[in-house]
Amino acid sequence: MSVRYFYKRLLIWLLTIWSLNNFLLSPAFAHSGGYRNWHMGRWMMGGWGMGWFGMIMMVIFWVLVIAGIVFFVRWLVQNTGSRSHSGLGTGNQAMDTLKERYAKGEISHNEFESMKKEILR
């Protein structure tokens, strides 16, 4: 997966989350007053809350949390993926060791060929 493709997918996800956030919060924005028994009033603290800045910071916070989880899972998959293929890598490791021993002159050509056939079997 290329970096450009990853960032394109990330942008699509962020725009989707932002759109859903705006859609789901629109009833709260449409509330026209008359809080009756709401002791906190509009946006908590009687209208002296964080307002739009607080909402933007909340969205940024959750985007960072989700991006962190995505990067952690991606890192975890990459690191465990290399270990899970260790069974396949043993043939290559054995072949490398065999080539190294042949290059050092520890084994003859006939021994090299017979051992190579055993490894590739």
Overview of the structural elements:
- It is a single chain.
- With 121 residues, the protein is mainly alpha-helical.
- The protein has two domains: 3-84, no CATH class; 87-121, no CATH class.
- Helix content is 77%, strand content 0%.
- It has four helices and no strands.
- The chain is rod-shaped, with a radius of gyration of 30 Å.
- The two termini are 33 Å apart.
- The relative contact order is 0.05.
What labels describe this entry?
mainly alpha, 4 helices, 121 residues
- Give the terminus-to-terminus CA distance: 33 Å
Bin the strand percentage. Answer: under 5%
Number of strands: 0
User: Number of domains in the coordinates?
Assistant: 2
Give the structural class.
mainly alpha
Unreliable stretches covering 5 or more consecutive residues: none
Q: Which whole number gives the mean pLDDT?
A: 77
Main sheet overview: none
Measured as a percent range, the helix fraction is over 70%
Q: What's the SSE pattern?
A: HHHH
Provide a quick synopsis of the model.
The chain is mainly alpha-helical and 121 residues long.
Give the topology, please:
Blueprint: H1 3-30, H2 51-84, H3 86-104, H4 109-120
Helix pairs in contact: 3-4
